[in-house]
């Protein structure tokens, strides 16, 4: 099992989540489209050669964005990331992927 977290502007929040869910990510037991999201502020400065969706080359840009976190099964993670990158409005979307511990290997409490 993996955890996928990504940052997306509010204008594309629902559309990006939709394609990531359609890839099979965000399923927990008999539930689908499961995620946690929180609003925050992201910032970036496009460098020479960038073609930013928002902002201008060389200028610091601050954008209201959402951090979305969800779980994803091993065999679906590559499709989930591909769907995220394809649907995201930024040319370089920010995201994290990390493997979760297998609960069967942890001591019982």
UniProtKB/TrEMBL annotation:
Signal peptide feature range: none
Top-level division of the source organism's lineage: Bacteria
Biological classification of the source: Bacteria, Pseudomonadati, Pseudomonadota, Gammaproteobacteria, Oceanospirillales
Protein name per the record: NGG1p interacting factor NIF3
